[in-house]
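Structure ticket #2291
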Amino acid sequence: MTRAIVLAGGEGTRLRPYTAVIPKPLMPIGDRPILGIVLLQLKHAGFTNVVLSIGYRADLIEAFFGDGSNFGLEIEYVREDKPLGTVGALALVDDLDEPFLVMNGDVLTDLDYAELLRRHTGSDALVTIATVRKHVEITLGIPRMASDGSGRLVDFLEKPGIDVEASMGVYGMSSDVLKYIQPHERLDFPDLVHRLLNADESVRAWSPGGYWLDIGRHEDYDQATAEFDSMRHRLVPEPAVVPR
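Resolution: structure written out below.
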């Protein structure tokens, strides 16, 4: 059984006031919710079992997606009675004895999830992070000072940009990673990575290129809705059956 865990329990505070009524996984992109797109992609990639970790407005999410049969999937649910951070809920999932996929439920991407898990399984890593190259604009003037502590300027950069490898919020994981997550412990992904590195465990990254947006902010959500029609052929496997 090829399993994926989708983290969909957050309150989506950066998308308020929309998420005061609708949980972020049900926010529409085109004619379907973002989590609906993710589930179709997972089915297309060969995943058979999906665990949805839910918390905020959990009843709405569970009522919409049900048992997953409309997507050709088996959907299970784990509920966070209190916020557990971005990976703490993994300790609530039963029977994670083989490599599995973990991802945020607000990611819009054409990433090949199956290829990520294949690459992870063929490596020595406990975690493989899918990354994407991003150009980040710094909207500030940046003075550069001499290294002698005198405060003497050697350069001044007006609104510079930097290129970084950013996490997509999609990961391949091995079952041994659970040794580093305590049940009911709040734990964010960066803290998990630091635990693994401090224990000399292997963590790797893979940059596949392609399209990626995290719709956590208003500007990203607006971009996703504006680009969806032109990107639909890359993002939504067809034919697709989605509950209306």
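Closing remark: DSSP finds five helices and 13 strands in the chain.
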